[in-house]
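Entry 14. Ran structure prediction on the chain below.
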Amino acid sequence: MSHHLVSAADLRFAYPDGTEALRGVSFVIHHGESVGLVGANGAGKSTLLLHLAGALLPTSGQVRVGDWPVTASTLPQIRRSLGLVFQDADDQLFMPTVGDDVAFGPLNLGLPPAEVDRCVAAALERVGAAHLRDRPSHRLSGGEKRLAAIAAVLSSSPDILVMDEPSANLDPAARRRILSLLRSFEHTKIVASHDLDLVLDVCARTIVLHEGRVAADGPSAEILADARLLEPVRLEPPLRLQACPRCGGAAR
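Output, C-alpha cells:
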C-alpha cells in the first residue's frame, strides 16, 4: 500500500452532546491526487479532517493513512506523513515566535539544528512570510497567522498535505501565493474550502459532504458546474462558472 494513500470506511462520529457529525463516510484517495472537500457550514468537513490527522477518533468505522489505521497508538506514524493546517490558526500557533512554531515539527522529527534552520527558512520563504520569523504569533494579523500556520506544516515536509480553509483571511496577493503553493505540491493534497474557485483551480477531484454524508464524489469540473447537484446541499458554482448578471453569459 502506498504511504500516500488516505481512506475512510463507513466513518461515523458523534460529539459528546449527541450531534452526529459524520454518518457513514467512505472514500479512497490515492497517491498524487488533489481532492477538494466542499460542503455548507456544518456538513462535517472540519470534523473529517481532524479524523485524518488523528485529532479525533471515530465512534465507528475506520480511517487509514498509508499502511496505518488511525488510532491512538499509530499517531506518531500518521503525523510523520500527514500535515494538517487547521481552520483556526490560533489552534496551531503556540510558541513564542513564528520561527519557533515553524521549527517545532522538524525539531520533533529529531533533525539537527542546522537542518531545522534550513527547513524553517525554506518554509517561510515558500509562503512569503520570511519577514515574520521573529514576530510573536499573537501580534500577527489573521492572514499572517494563516501563512505562519501553513509554513509550520510545510517545514516537516509531509507526504500528504491537508488544509482546512487555506485562503481564509488572505488578501489577493497572499491567496495567489497559496494557489501557487498548492499547485506545486507534488504529493497528495486534500483541501477543504468554501472558496470553490480555489478548489476548481487546484483540485482535480471534489468530494461533496452534506449533513455528514458523501453527497457526490467526482471530477471537480463536473461536480462544481452542476448547479442542480449543488443547490440541495446549499452550495453554488464557483463565481467564474456562474452566469454574468448583466448579459446572462458565463463569467470569465
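Strands lie at 6-14, 20-29, 34-38, 60-65, 68-69, 82-85, 160-164, 188-192, 205-210, 213-219. Will compare against last week's run tomorrow.
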